């Protein structure tokens, strides 16, 4: 099992950028597909982005496509989410997650979750 800890959240003005990190413990990080989800106040958790174990395949929600970039460094056991051109509607708690298969991430079939990091975008 992999354990996940997110960091990098904070307060940023609209149009600004943030980079989230998700540090994994355990020896199996490189075997997992990874993803980012978010949950805004009063809303359900939603898929943001996912990446295959090798980093060769990525998927994005339409709402973040072209603004967010997911990446990973398997040697550092770390997942990243670079967020540019942030909008107030991007305000949410962001969670990283691990899954055996990239195809199952969007549907929420996940093996591990982090505790979340709060991103607040002011207008």
Distance between the termini: 40 Å
Q: What does the overall shape look like?
A: globular
Which runs of at least 5 residues are low in confidence (pLDDT < 50)?
A: none
In what range is the share of β-strand residues? over 45%
Treating each run of at least 4 consecutive H or I residues as one helix, how many helices?
A: 1
Q: What gyration radius follows from the Cα positions, in whole Å?
A: 13 Å
- Give the SSE string: EEEEEEEEEHEE
Structural class: mainly beta
Q: Biggest β-sheet, characterized?
A: 7 strands, mixed
User: What would the average pLDDT be, to the nearest integer?
Assistant: 95
Number of beta strands: 11
Helix fraction, binned, reads: under 10%
Give a written overview of the molecule:
- Strand 5 and strand 6 form a beta hairpin.
- This protein starts with a strand and ends with a strand.
- Strands 2, 4, 5, 6, 9, 10 and 11 form a seven-stranded mixed beta sheet that branches. The chain has a four-stranded antiparallel beta sheet with strand order 1-3-8-7, with no helix packed on it.
- The protein has one helix and eleven strands; from the N terminus they run E-E-E-E-E-E-E-E-E-H-E-E.
- The chain is globular and about 40 Å long.
- The mean pLDDT is 95.
- Helix content is 3%, strand content 50%.
- It is mostly beta strands.
Describe how the helices and strands are arranged.
Layout: E1 3-7, E2 10-13, E3 18-25, E4 33-39, E5 46-51, E6 58-60, E7 68-73, E8 78-83, E9 92-99, H1 102-105, E10 112-113, E11 117-122
Parallel strand pairs: 2-11
Antiparallel strand pairs: 1-3, 3-8, 4-5, 4-9, 5-6, 7-8, 9-10, 9-11
């Amino acid at each position: 099992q992999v354990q996940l800890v997110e960091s990098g959240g904070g307060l940023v003005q609209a149009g600004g950028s943030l980079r989230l990190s998700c540090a994994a413990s355990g020896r199996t990080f490189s075997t997992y597909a990874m993803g980012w989800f978010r949950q805004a106040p009063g809303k359900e958790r939603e898929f943001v982005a996912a990446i295959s174990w090798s980093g060769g395949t990525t998927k994005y929600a339409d709402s973040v496509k072209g603004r967010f970039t997911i990446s990973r460094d398997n040697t550092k056991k770390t997942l990243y989410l670079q967020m540019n051109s942030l909008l107030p509607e991007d305000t949410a708690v962001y969670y990283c997650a691990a899954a055996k298969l990239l195809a199952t991430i969007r549907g929420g079939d996940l093996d591990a979750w982090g505790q979340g990091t709060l991103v607040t975008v002011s207008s």
